[in-house]
Amino acid sequence: MATEEELRGFMRRRRMVRFERRFDPHSTTGYVVGVGAHLFLLVHIDDSIRFDGFQVHRHRDVRKLRAEPNASFLEAALKRRRAVRPAKPRLRLHDIRQLIRAAGRHFPLLAIHREQVDPDVCQIGAVMDVGERRVTLREIRPDGTWRSELDHYALREITRVDFGGSYEDALHVVGGRAPPANGPQQPTGAAANLAARRRSRWTGKE
Questions:
Q1: Which of 84, 95, 126, 150 has the most CB atoms lying inside 10 A of its own CB?
Q2: Helix 166-175 vs helix 189-197: angle between axes, to the nearest 10 degrees?
Q3: What is the full DSSP assignment across the chain?
Q4: Cα 31–Cα 87–Cα 79 angle in degrees, nearest 5
Q5: Are the beta carbons of 160 and 56 closer than 8 angstroms?
């Protein structure tokens, strides 16, 4: 488990971090840019050494938090590529409910992970509503088309939230704005053409 004090220390010193998580055998690298009592916000650096949006993790899921041992190389690569760190959004990190509500206002798509329930699948979609105990999503398929049904997930099951990354951006570029909760559901434009050629093989939902 990472402590709030440790996380704030890395954030204050602007040091790149690396850590493992109890649900994931692979390490995660990035910069801590926000810390709450139970959650923290990370600017993610992916395996291609590029900034790739934000991740929100729970303190209790983190293992082996430390300074990134290859930070000098990674930072030199980012600098030579003239990579610009994404601006930190104004989010409330007090609890998962407030976090999702705020992130849903800032970003068109969120990726929600429920690793204790289904470790191999994440749900990506637009936030339609956040209640006391669950979040309602309009999910988007891997081909950029929107699901006709709304889906509901228990907030207590959510272990991680991602947004602002390259994959979410690609889905948004193809799929466009999410249909309203009670609006027309048929895909149009590029998304409709893709839907005609491919069926979703991601979550098995149609």
A1: 126
A2: 100
A3: ---HHHHHHHHHHT-EEEEEETTEEEEEEEEEEEE-SSEEEEEEE-TTSSEEEEEEEEGGGEEEEEE-TTHHHHHHHHHHTT--PPPPP----SSHHHHHHHHHHH-S-EEEE-TTT-TT-EEEEEEEEE-SSEEEEEEB-TTSPBPSS-EEEEGGG--EEEES-HHHHHHHHHH-SPPPTTS-----HHHHHHHHH----SS---
A4: 60
A5: yes
Q: Whose structure tokens read 């050629």?
A: 197
Q: Cβ–Cβ contacts within 10 Å for residue 53, how many?
A: 20
Rounded to an integer, the average pLDDT of 27-51 is: 97
- Cα angle at 115 between 118 and 182, to 5 degrees? 70
98 Cα distance to chain centroid: 15
Chain segment 48-100, per-residue pLDDT in tens: 999 999 999 999 999 999 999 999 999 999 999 999 999 999 998 999 999 99
CA nearest to 65, candidates 122, 120, 8: 8
Tokens of 45: 């650096």
Extract the tokens encoding 181.
Answer: 């909760």
Domains of the chain by start residue, with CATH: 1-88 (2.30.30.100), 94-206 (2.30.30.100)
Please state, in angstroms and rounded to a whole number, the distance separating the CA atoms of residues 52 and 174.
Answer: 18
